[in-house]
Hints:
Elements: E1 7-14, E2 26-30, E3 39-44, H1 56-79, E4 91-96, E5 111-116, E6 128-135, E7 142-147, E8 149-157, E9 162-172, H2 175-190, E10 192-197, H3 200-208, H4 232-242, E11 257-262, E12 266-269, E13 274-283, E14 294-299, E15 305-310, E16 317-325, E17 331-339, E18 342-343, E19 347-353, H5 364-374, H6 380-392, H7 406-415, H8 421-431, H9 437-449
Helix pairs in contact: 1-2, 5-6, 5-8, 8-9
The chain binds zinc ion.
Zinc ion binds at residues 11-13, 184, 188, 194.
Amino acid sequence: MKKPILGIVLASIVLFSFQSAFAYTVTYEKWGPKIKDISTVCIIEPDYPNSKILSETFAKRIMDETRISVNEWQVQLQSFERGRDKSMWIIEQIPISLEEQKEFDYNQCHIFIKFKERPESQDEWYKLLAKTEYELGDTGRSDITIYYTSIKFCRTEDKDWVYFDPCYEDFPRLMQQIKSVIKHEFGHALGLGHYSSDNLDVSIGWARGTVPAPSIMAVFSHQNLNENIITVKDVVAVRSMYGENGFLPDKEEQIVFDSFQSSSEVYVIPKGGFTVASVDGLINKDMYISGLQVQITIIDPNQSVETREVRVSSDGVFNFQTVVDESIVNGTYTVFANYRDKKSHEITVDIQYEGEDVQSKIPQWVKNSVKWWAEDKINEHDFILGIQHLIRQGILNPPSPENQTVEDYEENQPLGVKIPNYVKQNALWWSQDKITDDEFFDGVRYLIKKGILVI
Ligand SMILES: [Zn+2]
């Protein structure tokens, strides 16, 4: 019989577990790519001779419609590869009839789809319409079980009340419901989580099918009579998880962001007015996917996180602009971008109010530039920009340089700037808050005095 899979239940469709919330935000969970290379899906024919619920005809139809549902994933994924070889999204399928099941070599299967009347555990009755279990370890193998018995609300009454409780009927669920559930569970096997809203009404609308669900990964209720479809959101989610090579193994690690920067490191908001802050970047041309947006994450000085989606033009350029006025918190913001599940480097942007006393306030970007310089990640130029900023703000008072001899000057030229090791060490410690500003400034003043650092 079927090779047993040791697994943990991660994915299931749950009927009645909605949570209420005030705001309406949507999240699309992605659990990361689960399958590797071309996967073989084995569809196990249900045991209809031993079922009071399934006819032979319905069992054969389930086999056909399952194949069509899984194939819909392949067709949708491939349809986005305009003008490219589409083999990276191939999903092989093997239907295994009852007669073949004894002799079949299940080792060739990566994903199993099997059918049962209802969950074995009574706790899960009516709640689970299906489940997907992943094999332990990063094997890409998973096991999908579809529960096919129709559920309705049965009426019972006593002398005081009429009750409507879910109960199983003696026949299978509508084929379009079963198909929706198969497509949903296969999304889990691919590594997608749920598409959900934290608003009760919205969630119920999607689940019951009174409002079309924007994603096949929205939670599905037994009351939903529709056949849900795989949407553009779903295809984009899978493509962003798996990348350019689809299910096939990755080539080398690709650079996603050719650049990412803010048009200014400091924005000063004029009194009673506003200014426009902007960040822009460039997506590497080999990583660009038409229609996929860049996600910009902004962390404000109070560590509140906000994300925005911005369009990427066909040449890979993206730009995010926002009006900043005195209604926003001043201080240091951290900004980074995500695309194709890869993160850009982080940049820091300072927002200041005009006329604000910035004495003794050292912006994070200066600390960062000092840290990166100490770690040899950036050259002197960016370090000097930071020091110049401190001098302009009156935070660091530079000494006058000592007279330099011609020899010193020439010796320094070809080597760039020569900086004693202890100053770099101090810089690192300072960026980690291990030494005080003054201790670090002493080192910088020494460099300026000796003419090593020309500000
Ligand atoms: Zn689910």
